[in-house]
Amino acid sequence: MLGYTWAKYKSNTSYMLRKFLTSFTGAGAAPPRARGNPIEDALLKQVVEARAQDPLIGARVAARELLRRLGNIFTQDQGVHAESLFCALGALGGYACQAAVRAQATARGVAPASLLTAERGADGHTYYSGNALHALLDGTPNGLWPLISESARTLRFELLPDIREIFRHVDSTVGTPAFGKPRSAGPRAPRDLPFLYLRTHWTAFHPTVMKFCSAPEQWPMVYGFAIREALERYRQQMEPGAAATLAMECADAMSRIDLATHGQPAEPVRRPARAATLAPL
Questions:
Q1: 7 phi and psi, to 5 degrees?
Q2: In terms of DSSP bridges, do strands 126-129 and 117-120 run parallel, antiparallel, or are they unpaired?
Q3: 175: left (phi over 0), alpha (psi -120 to 50) or beta
Q4: What value does the mean pLDDT take over residues 94-120?
Q5: What is the mean pLDDT of the chain?
Q6: Which partner from 37, 61, 225, 243 sits 20 to 30 angstroms from 71, CA to CA?
Q7: Alpha carbon distance 229, 231 (integer Å)
């Protein structure tokens, strides 16, 4: 597992993290800042300097800020709508895996198609898969699911998610109307589909992630850290095991889509009709 345990993650709330978070004031999303903001530049410099002691400090800083902003977005009179929050975090984290694979391919000077396998679904949309994508979801100690599942020991999930079953379910729905529609995870459902949360928040949040995580493989980790903290913070609103299941189901589905075209009308794949056979005389 990751060298940084959950207990160490909890205890590693440094002065720099607190300074970063308090630099964003007021409710709701932080107001946009002009490029070259001296406070943000100073914090970025501190992140770079701190990486020698904590290589993941940038991911931790970004995770705290994104969780704060999303928490404000999904707050209602009764508190944070946890189902929507975990749906959105999972969707963003899953697509961050695909974005990281694409960035890795570009850095190597190869086409993303060399690391992503594209397949046209029965609905006419393009879906991606491949070892590089799976590695960031679950295939490495720093993958999205290992980061989240590390919380199971601390929070004592009532229901430990079966990640293989989640992957099988998403596989079985690719190209069907059921794809990207989370299964019931409790008495309440997310207010919207994961794709709609992804389309709404990706361009708003990803620049922050890139600022504090220069290595693309750390982009999904930002959401892993955010989900892990949200599991504890909102455990009264949603049972952690069910929340982790919801987040990973959304993550797996959204890691596969073509964001530029998903949700738009597409020409369904037409299966060739079977040739008619004559009944025997």
A1: -65, -40
A2: antiparallel
A3: left
A4: 96
A5: 84
A6: 37
A7: 5
Residue 164 burial class via C-beta count within 10 angstroms: exposed 0-12, middle 13-18, buried 19 and up? exposed
According to DSSP, residue 24 is labeled S
Classify strands 79-80 and 117-120 as parallel, antiparallel or unpaired.
Answer: unpaired
pTM higher than the cut 0.90: no
Does residue 233 have a pLDDT over 90? Answer: yes
Token pair for 7: 């207990």
Contact assessment for residue 18 and residue 65, using Cβ atoms and an 8 Å cutoff: no
Are 175 and 122 in contact by the 8 Å Cβ rule? The answer is yes
Per the rule left: phi > 0, alpha: psi between -120 and 50, beta: everything else, 124 is: left
Which residue type, as a one-letter code, is found at position 179?
Answer: F
Please state, in angstroms and as integers, the Cα–Cα distance from residue 112 to each residue in 128, 255, 256, following that order: 11, 14, 13
What pLDDT is recorded for position 257?
97
What does the alpha-carbon distance between residue 69 and residue 205 come to, in Å, rounded to a whole number? Answer: 9
Query: Which tokens is 261 given?
Result: 């075209």
Burial 231-243, CB ≥16 within 10 A → b, else e:
beebeebbbbbbb
94-247-32 Cα angle (round to 5):
65
Among 138, 133, 145, 62, smallest CA distance to 97 is for 133
CB atoms within 10 A of CB 61: 27
200, 206, 208, 213 alpha-carbon torsion, rounded to 10°: 160
Helix (H, G, I), strand (E, B) or coil at 257: strand
Ranges assigned E (strand) in 52-185 = 75-76, 79-80, 117-120, 126-129
